[in-house]
Design goal:
heterodimer, A: 93 residues, mainly alpha, Multidrug-efflux Transporter Regulator, Chain: A, Domain 2, 63% helix, B: 300 residues, alpha+beta, Helix Hairpins, HSP40/DNAj peptide-binding domain, 29% helix
Chain lengths: 93, 300
């Protein structure tokens, strides 16, 4: 689902200043090509992760950068792994 | 649910700081987004989170210790984790292949497979972008060329096809968001709203309107100017026309699917001059009104 900034703020329960900071840090990269900045379900889930990291896990801003970068690489690897798995392992009958 | 103290691994006498510390330690190990391949982590994390919601809140903890509430029903609101989206093939701006880029640089079959899957992802079509546009009723019948100004300052030329219906969506191929690699751009989808014209109503390919005529025009006939979507035309009102008489202007409606055009139906409405007109009264009083009774067929 594509949502507006307002919908995103209410869905993630974060303040607008916080959102602006996260975008500035490129922790969140909303879509800017449409009518306004718009957010996807992926952005919402990523915002929840950032909120958990900062709040529950006590990670500081520098740490968020490192974690997001590593998590994204991990998902890149998982995606490549899934493709290889699909290409190599014949589908079960 | 088991004992929240046991879940967090703390003694029932633990301080709030100890509870927070224990929760943080477990959350670091079990957070589903830090364990993307571990399906069980989410369930375990949920238990830990519920236990912490109970014991991390002094008031709730007190009531739990007193046996007033138990740990059930203390569910956290559900949300989907980043891991549910991040591995998907759908394009998102966070995709990162730098973790295996070095493996793609070699010549072996493994590198070839990696490159192929990377290419498939890299050549993705751009998103469709949605816009809306309002046009006049006449433009919806005759067609028009419109220029849409986009939020980013760009413009988009839209050709409104003749006969467009309110709410119709025009697709401009390749005018959406750019794709990646050879994926090509998406499309622009423009929803067109037709601004109603108080004079006209549309019925399929035909349009209808009501035209007022004077008493002499009704009785004696005459030529009247009638609006159509392509401009005014002169129409001949036949002698003896009445309110409700409908005339057809052939081919003045919207284009038909199979070729040709619908028609414009003009419904006449006899209108008397506003206010009392002594001259008209004098004239009508000389007319033998008994000769005609519009109610004699039981209409009233």
């Amino acid at each position: 689902m594509i949502m507006t900034k307002q919908q995103f703020l209410s869905s993630t329960e974060i303040e607008v200043q916080t959102l602006e900071f996260w975008i500035e840090q490129q922790w969140l990269v909303p879509d800017r090509t449409a009518v306004d900045v718009t957010f996807s379900d992926t952005d919402v889930a990523r915002a929840h992760l950032i909120r958990d990291l900062k709040g529950d896990l006590g990670v500081n801003d520098e740490g968020i950068d490192v974690i997001l970068h590593l998590v994204d690489q991990l998902h890149g690897l998982r995606r490549a792994f899934a493709h290889l798995h699909r290409d190599i392992v014949p589908p079960s009958r | 649910m088991s004992n929240p103290y046991e879940i967090l691994g703390v003694a029932p006498t633990a301080s709030l700081a100890e509870i927070q510390k224990a929760y943080r330690k477990l959350a670091k190990q079990l957070h589903p987004d830090l364990n993307p391949g571990d399906k069980a982590a989410e369930e375990k994390f949920k238990e830990v989170a519920v236990a912490y919601d109970l014991l991390g809140d002094a008031e709730k903890r007190k009531r739990f210790d007193a046996g007033e509430i138990d740990a059930s029903g203390a569910e956290r609101p559900q949300h989907r984790y980043y891991r549910d989206f991040a591995t998907s093939d759908e394009g998102h701006p966070y995709a990162d292949s730098s973790g295996y880029a070095d493996y793609m640089d070699t010549d072996d079959a493994f590198a070839e497979l990696l490159r192929r899957s990377e290419q498939a992802r890299a050549n993705r079509r751009g998103r469709d972008l949605h816009y809306s546009l309002t046009i006049d009723f006449a433009e919806s019948i005759t067609g028009a060329g419109k220029r849409l100004t986009l939020p980013d300052g760009g413009t988009l030329d839209v050709t409104i096809p003749p006969g467009l219906i309110d709410g119709q969506i025009i697709r401009l191929r390749g005018k959406g968001a750019p794709g990646t690699g050879k994926g090509g751009p998406g499309d622009a989808l423009i929803e067109v709203e037709v601004r109603p014209d108080p004079r006209f109503t549309r019925d399929g390919d035909d349009i209808a309107l009501e035209v007022p005529i004077s008493l002499p025009e009704a009785v004696l006939g005459g030529k009247v100017r009638v609006p159509t979507p392509t401009g005014d035309v002169t129409m001949t009102v036949p002698k003896g026309s009445n309110t409700g008489t409908t005339m057809r202007l052939k081919g003045k409606g919207a284009p038909r699917h199979g070729g040709g055009h619908g028609d414009e139906f003009v419904k006449l409405k006899v209108v008397l001059p506003k206010g009392p007109d002594p001259e008209l009264e004098a004239f009508v009083s000389t007319w033998d009104r008994k000769a005609f009774n519009p109610r004699e067929d039981g209409a009233s």
